Amino acid sequence: MDNKIITLSHGAGGEAMHRLIKELFVKQFSNPRLNPLADAAILKLNEERLAFTTDSYVVKPLEFPGGNIGQLAVCGTINDLVVMGAKPLYLSASFILEEGFPIQILERIVTSMSQTARAAQVEIVTGDTKVVPRGECDGIFINTAGLGMCPLGHGLSKAPLTEGDAVVISGTIGDHGIAILAAREGLALQTTIESDCASLHELIGSVLKESKGVKWMRDPTRGGLAAALTELAESQSCDIFIREAAIPVQEPVRAVCELLGFDPLHLANEGKVVMVIAAGEAERIVELLRAHPLGRAAATIGQIIGGGMGIVRMKTEAGGVRRLHRPAGELLPRIC
Ligand code: MG
Hints:
This protein is of the alpha+beta class. It has two domains: 38-149, CATH 3.30.1330.10; 166-324, Phosphoribosyl-aminoimidazole Synthetase, Chain A, domain 2 (Alpha-Beta Complex), CATH 3.90.650.10. It has eight helices and 14 strands. The strands form three sheets. It has a seven-stranded mixed β-sheet with strand order 9-11-8-12-10-13-14. A five-stranded mixed β-sheet has the order 1-2-7-5-6, with helices on one face. The chain has a two-stranded antiparallel ribbon with strand order 3-4. It is globular, with a radius of gyration of 19 Å. The structure holds magnesium ion (MG). Magnesium ion is lined by residues 39, 80, 219, 221.
């Protein structure tokens, strides 16, 4: 560790966080279930395969256009299970509350957790509540853990990634990041940009039921699409080529990015999935995604290419080619 203290960049989903995880957590905790650093650990118990995940939520502001910290906490954990091909079943919910926090706001947050869980047929079965003195946390922090089952017979394809596999995104990128930024900074925008915060169990379930062509999935949260694709290339030792012009970005998101110098590829999403799909199945799966309200803007954005160096390149809209990296430094702390 170069700097001897934790900085905000250690939580930003980019290079510093990746190194902290690899060089401290994985080094100390190392085991075959943790080491792949997937969205959820896959646990084999007798004949069953379970998916197990956890996430903490510290988003600021607590309520924002398109969601709140509670909805985010339930959706985020459900999504980490479904991108592993699992059916989400049970969640835990732990609350760290600051003395003085209004119970009315807590009620709103907990009500939307309950509604979101119920809509996904997930039960919140255990939890914990701690209260710290005024000033020792910012209102409320929430941790959720999730347990799901990987159903036999469907789920992710076991086939290795090969040249020509398609890289697909389920919709527009950057919506959550810009919604939080706009809400936090009180940006006076012409249109309200809403977070894409959503539970993907139905969207992904509809694809896995119809096709055996999905080889890999990830929800591009902190670090954005760039971090998800870098992770994919490095972990699978494959090279990826994407086309910037094919990546769906809402016009107002693009406008704010241009104004403030953000790259939409680095912004967090909370209701999107990146998929790698066997070449022959890609068109059909994009159609399946587009048939669902959460996948209307789904698009093939590139493909796996030969090389095996673990790098991601992008043909830019200007016509050049640049290499994609994990975002360096801290973009927007407390984005989720
Ligand atoms: Mg994830």
